[in-house]
Design brief:
The chain has two domains: about 1-145 and about 295-325, Quinone Oxidoreductase, Chain A, domain 1 (Alpha-Beta Complex); about 150-275, NAD(P)-binding Rossmann-like Domain (Rossmann fold). Helix content is about 25%, strand content about 25%. It is built from nine helices and 17 strands. It has helices at about 40-45, 95-100, 140-145, 150-160, 175-185, 200-205, 235-240, 280-290, 310-315, and strands spanning about 1-5, 15, 25-35, 65-70, 80-85, 90, 110, 125, 130-135, 165-170, 190-195, 210-215, 225-230, 245-250, 270-275, 300-305, 325. The strands form four sheets. Strands 3, 4, 5, 8, 9, 16 and 17 form a seven-stranded mixed beta sheet that branches. It has a six-stranded parallel beta sheet with strand order 12-11-10-13-14-15, sandwiched between helices. Helix 4 (about 150-160) crosses helix 5 (about 175-185) and helix 4 packs across helix 8 (about 280-290). The longest helix is centred in the middle third of the chain and has 12 residues, at about 150-160. The two termini are about 15 Å apart. The structure holds zinc ion (2 copies). One zinc ion binds near residues 92, 98 and 108.
Length: about 325
C-alpha cells in the first residue's frame, strides 16, 4: 500500500510502499478514505511531545475509513461500514483513571498515528471499540476534522463550563468547528487570531463570532472563559488579562511554549488555568451527535496523500482556513 512515512522527526515524510496491516483480535482493517492533518502531527514531526513515537511512523489520527476486514472477535461493524478513528486508539480499561471514567488520562493509552500507525496511508487497523460510527450528513473530507480538532476542542469547551462570553485564542481547525458549537449553545464568541490576520478575523465573524481581533488586543468586554488553541504560552497570560472573575482559561493543545511568569493579581478572584488532554469515547459520542444538529460545517482544504508534507507546512504557516485533509481513496 502507499503510505507517507516519518522515518525520523524533522525529516521530510517519505512516500513508501508498505505491506498492508492485518487486523489483530478486536481490530478492524480500514481502507482509508480521508485523514485530517492536525497541529499535533507537527508537534510529533518537531519532536515536541513527551515520550517517543513509534518509528518509522505513519502519522494521522483523524481517519475516515471503510471497514474491509475484521480481526478475531471483532463484530461491532459490518464490512463496508464507514467509521472514524480518533487520537485515543486504545485504553486499558483497568487503570485508576479508566475506572473513574477518565480514559483520556489512561496510563497505558495508545495513540493513533503516534504509538500505532495512523491514516497517512491506504490502509490502517484500529481497535473497533475506539472507532466511531460517523453521521451520514458529512462527506469523508468534512468528517475527518471532527475526529480531533472537533472532539478535543469539544472536551475543552466542556471544561470551560457555562461561560457566556468565551474567547478563542488561535482560530484554526479546532476553533472554527467549536465556534459554531458555542454559538449554537447561545454563547458569545470572541475570536483572537495572529495580529493583522484580517482574513482569519473575517472568517471567524462569518462563523458567528461576535468580535474578532488580534491576540495582543483586549476584547471589548471581559471574558467568562477562554480556550487557547494556539501553542503559544504567553496567550495563557493574555487570556487571563482579558478574563472576568471566576473565568476558566483552558489550553487545548498537547504542547505549548513556555508560559511566562505573571502577577498573582491576574489569577486572583477564582480564575483558573487548565489543560485538556486527549478525549474519552463519551466526548466523541457527544460531539458526533450534536454536530449535525448545529449543524457544524467544517471548512476543508484537501490534498492528495502524496502531498502530506505540503499540508503539514501549510498548517504550520497558518495558511489554511479551517482544516487540512488528505484524500486517500474514494
Ligand atoms: Zn487506563
Ligand atoms: Zn489531533
Amino acid at each position: 500500500m502507499r503510505a507517507m512515512v516519518l522515518d525520523r522527526p524533522g525529516q521530510p515524510l517519505r512516500a513508501a510502499e508498505l505491506p498492508e496491516p492485518q487486523p489483530g483480535p478486536g481490530q478492524v482493517k480500514l481502507a482509508v478514505r480521508t485523514c485530517g492533518v492536525c497541529r499535533t502531527d507537527l508537534h510529533i514531526y518537531d519532536s515536541e511531545l513527551q515520550g517517543e513515537p513509534k518509528l518509522p511512523l505513519v502519522m494521522g489520527h483523524q481517519i475516515v475509513g471503510e471497514v474491509v476486514a475484521a480481526g478475531e472477535g471483532a463484530r461491532r461493524f459490518e464490512l463496508g461500514d464507514r467509521v472514524g478513528v480518533p487520537w485515543l486508539g486504545w485504553a486499558d480499561g483497568t487503570c485508576r483513571y479508566c475506572r473513574e471514567g477518565r480514559e483520556n488520562l489512561c496510563e497505558n493509552a495508545r495513540f493513533t498515528g503516534y504509538d500505532v500507525d495512523g491514516g497517512y496511508a491506504e490502509f490502517a487497523v484500529a481497535a473497533e471499540a475506539f472507532c466511531f460510527p460517523l453521521p451520514p450528513a458529512y462527506s469523508d473530507a468534512e468528517a475527518a476534522p471532527l475526529l480531533c480538532a472537533g472532539l478535543i476542542g469539544y472536551r475543552a469547551l466542556r471544561l470551560v463550563g457555562e461561560a457566556e462570553r468565551i474567547g478563542f485564542y488561535g482560530f484554526g481547525s479546532s476553533a472554527h468547528i467549536l465556534c459554531q458549537v458555542a454559538v449554537h449553545e447561545g454563547r458569545r464568541v470572541f475570536a483572537f487570531t495572529r495580529d493583522g490576520d484580517t482574513d482569519g478575523q473575517a472568517f471567524a465573524r462569518s462563523l458567528g463570532a461576535e468580535w474578532a481581533g488580534g491576540s495582543s488586543e483586549l476584547p471589548p468586554e471581559e471574558l467568562d472563559g477562554a480556550i487557547v488553541f494556539a501553542a503559544v504560552g504567553p496567550l495563557m497570560v493574555q487570556a487571563l488579562k482579558a478574563s472576568a472573575r471566576g473565568a476558566r482559561v483552558i489550553s487545548a493543545g498537547i504542547h505549548m511554549s513556555e508560559i511566562p511568569a505573571f502577577s498573582y493579581d491576574l489569577l486572583w478572584e477564582e480564575r483558573t488555568l487548565g489543560s485538556v488532554a486527549n478525549l474519552t469515547r463519551a466526548d466523541g459520542d457527544d460531539l458526533l451527535r450534536i454536530a449535525p444538529q448545529v449543524p457544524v460545517r467544517a471548512a476543508v482544504t484537501t490534498y492528495p496523500l502524496e502531498d502530506a508534507q505540503q499540508a503539514l507546512e501549510d498548517v504550520r504557516a497558518g495558511k489554511i482556513e479551517g482544516s487540512a485533509v488528505l484524500v486517500v481513496g474514494e
